[in-house]
UniProtKB/TrEMBL annotation:
Keywords: Cell membrane, Membrane, Transmembrane, Transmembrane helix, Transport. It is found in: Cell membrane. One of its GO terms (molecular function) is transmembrane transporter activity. It comes from Escherichia coli. It comes from the Bacteria. The lineage of its organism: Bacteria, Pseudomonadati, Pseudomonadota, Gammaproteobacteria, Enterobacterales. The keyword Ribonucleoprotein does not apply. It is a multi-pass membrane protein. This is Glutamate/gamma-aminobutyrate antiporter (Extreme acid sensitivity protein). The gene is gadC_3. PANTHER family: AMINO ACID TRANSPORTER-RELATED (PTHR42770), GLUTAMATE_GAMMA-AMINOBUTYRATE ANTIPORTER-RELATED (PTHR42770:SF15). Pfam families: AA_permease_2 (PF13520).
Length: 125
């Protein structure tokens, strides 16, 4: 586990440093730094295939959407297993025809909305 943590930190650092080496600090856009880096690199290395930046951005978008989907369904699956072991009410152990524990997903959404509306109650210090 420690090795995985070290590897994750190193890989994340390499990604951040590669962006910092390509884009000057006063010009970097924090919300689009990765795409800005690809644009600069492609225009410098191979201007004739600069269109690949759009392909890369579309693939990154698909990856982000897939990751968000796993973040939404992942905790619900864990809670579903808990509900199957009768540690949660039986209503939480039901799935729809597509295999999604809808009750749990909706309760997660409600919990999130409640926490957003009452942020002063959840200070993590």
């Amino acid at each position: 586990m420690l090795l995985l943590m070290v590897a994750a930190i190193c890989l994340s650092s390499v990604g951040g440093l590669s962006i910092a080496m390509v884009i000057p600090g006063n010009e970097i856009n924090l919300s689009a730094g990765v795409m800005q880096t690809f644009t600069v690199l492609m225009s410098h290395v191979a201007p004739e295939i600069e269109w690949t930046v759009r392909v890369i951005s579309a693939l990154l978008l698909l990856g982000v959407l897939a990751e968000i989907a796993s973040w939404i369904v992942g905790p619900s699956r864990g809670m579903y297993v808990t509900a199957q072991k009768n540690l949660l009410p039986a209503a939480f152990a039901k799935m729809n025809k597509n295999g999604v524990p809808v009750t749990l997903v909706i309760s997660q959404a409600g919990d999130y909305v409640y926490r957003v509306d009452h942020p002063h109650q959840y200070r993590w210090r």
